[in-house]
C-alpha cells in the first residue's frame, strides 16, 4: 500500500498549521501596536529555510515540499513586514534582513553557477537545508535547560509543541517512504525535542498552577 499521498497531505496540513502559530504574534503586534517581547530572527531564519527547501523541492520535483515551503515563506514574509511596521528597532531589523538577503543571494549563486547540474547540486543543497533545519530544532535546548532549572513552563506553547511533534513525525515518515534521508534526518530532532517538552509539561505544569501561555518557542 502506497502511503505517499496520505503522508503528503499530513505534511502539508501539519506544517502549515505549525507555521500559522506565528499569527498569534501577529495579532499581539496589531493589538499592542508594538513588537516588544517578540523575537524577529526566528521569522527571518525560517523564511530562509523555507526558500532553501523550496529550491530543493523544485530540483527534486516534489510538489509536497514546494507547496509547504511556498506557503511557509509567504507567511514568514508577512510576519517580517508586520514586525518591521511595529518595531522600534527598524535599523537593526533592516540590517539583519539585508544580511539574510546577502546570504540568500550568495547561496543562490553558488548552487546555480558553481555547481553543475545533477545529483551533486541536489545532494549539497539537501545537506545544507538539513543542517539549517537541525540547528533550528536544537536551538531551543538552552531555553529548555532554563525551564528545567526554574520549573516554569509558561514560556512554552503547548499547541506549538503538539504541532511540531506531528509535523516532524509526518516528515520523517514521508522521508522514509521516499527513501530521502535529507528529509528524514533533519526532522528527527523535532520529535525528540517535542517529547522533552511534553515531559516538561507533565512534570511542571501543575506547579505553574496555570495553563501554558500561548507564547511560541520557535523551532
From TrEMBL:
Task: Report the superkingdom from the record.
Answer: Eukaryota
The membrane spanning regions, by residue number, are 6-26, 38-59, 65-85, 92-111, 123-148, 155-175, 181-202
- Major site of localization recorded for this protein: membrane
Q: Where found?
A: Cell membrane
* Topology in the lipid bilayer: Multi-pass membrane protein
Keywords of the record, alphabetical order, are:
Cell membrane, Membrane, Repeat, Sugar transport, Transmembrane, Transmembrane helix, Transport
Q: Read off the Gene3D superfamilies from this record.
A: 1.20.1280.290
Pfam families, per the entry: MtN3_slv
Give the family, as the similarity comment puts it: Belongs to the SWEET sugar transporter family.
**Name listed for the protein in its UniProt record:** Sugar transporter SWEET1
Amino acid at each position: 500500500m502506497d502511503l505517499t499521498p496520505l503522508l503528503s497531505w499530513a505534511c502539508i496540513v501539519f506544517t502549515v498549521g505549525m507555521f500559522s502559530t506565528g499569527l498569534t504574534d501577529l495579532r499581539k503586534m496589531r493589538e499592542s501596536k508594538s513588537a516588544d517581547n517578540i523575537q524577529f530572527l526566528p521569522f527571518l531564519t525560517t523564511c530562509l529555510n523555507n526558500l532553501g527547501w523550496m529550491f530543493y523541492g523544485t530540483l527534486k520535483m516534489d510538489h509536497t515540499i514546494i507547496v509547504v515551503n511556498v506557503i511557509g515563506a509567504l507567511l514568514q514574509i508577512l510576519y517580517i513586514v508586520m514586525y518591521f511596521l511595529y518595531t522600534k528597532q527598524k535599523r537593526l531589523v533592516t540590517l539583519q534582513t539585508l544580511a539574510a538577503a546577502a546570504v540568500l543571494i550568495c547561496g543562490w549563486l553558488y548552487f546555480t553557477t558553481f555547481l553543475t547540474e545533477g545529483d551533486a547540486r541536489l545532494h549539497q543543497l539537501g545537506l545544507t537545508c538539513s543542517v539549517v533545519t537541525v540547528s533550528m530544532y536544537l536551538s531551543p535546548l538552552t531555553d529548555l535547560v532554563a525551564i528545567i532549572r526554574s520549573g516554569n513552563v509558561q514560556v512554552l506553547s503547548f499547541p506549538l509543541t503538539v504541532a511540531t511533534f506531528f509535523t516532524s513525525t509526518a516528515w520523517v515518515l514521508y522521508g522514509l517512504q521516499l527513501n530521502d534521508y535529507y528529509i528524514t534526518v533533519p526532522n528527527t530532532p523535532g520529535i525528540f525535542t517535542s517529547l522533552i517538552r511534553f515531559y516538561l509539561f507533565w512534570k511542571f505544569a501543575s506547579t505553574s498552577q496555570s495553563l501554558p501561555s500561548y507564547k511560541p518557542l520557535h523551532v
